[in-house]
Amino acid sequence: MTVEPSTDSNSQSPAEPVAIDGQAALDEFVAENDVVLADFYADWCGPCKMLEPTVEGLAADTDAAVAKVDVDANQPLAQAYGVRGVPTLVLFAGGEKVEEVVGVQSEDQLRSLIERYA
Questions:
Q1: Span 93-115, average pLDDT
Q2: Helix locations, 1-118, DSSP H
Q3: Beta carbons of 99 and 41 less than 8 angstroms apart
Q4: End-to-end C-alpha distance for the chain, whole angstroms
Q5: Helices 46-61 & 107-117 angle (0-180, nearest 10)
Q6: DSSP states of 48-64 as a string?
Q7: Residue range 72-96: average pLDDT?
Q8: How far apart (Å, rounded) are the C-alpha atoms in residues 10 and 115?
Q9: 11: pLDDT confidence band, cut at 50, 70 and 90?
């Protein structure tokens, strides 16, 4: 999936999670969006599947853009962010990594995390 460059930093974030493939794609996505929640997941991961509807809801209902990073397909990227278990959620604000949470989180917990930076 290609990401259209934004013309200004206040443009609408994508309403659906965006699949990210590689460091350059993640860097570009983070640069184009004020707040990004990166979901490092694996297809075989049960907790990741439990978290998926929550992550999709956050993409639709918050100002955060949501990136989905398959750790099996992007092992160097997962290593670069120190991902040791899935799901791992990394929050970026203003182009910088600001928070990281590991494991299934409630929608309320994640929403309040996003709202601190949005």
A1: 96
A2: 23-32, 46-61, 75-80, 107-117
A3: no
A4: 25
A5: 50
A6: HHHHHHHHHHHHHHSS-
A7: 97
A8: 16
A9: low
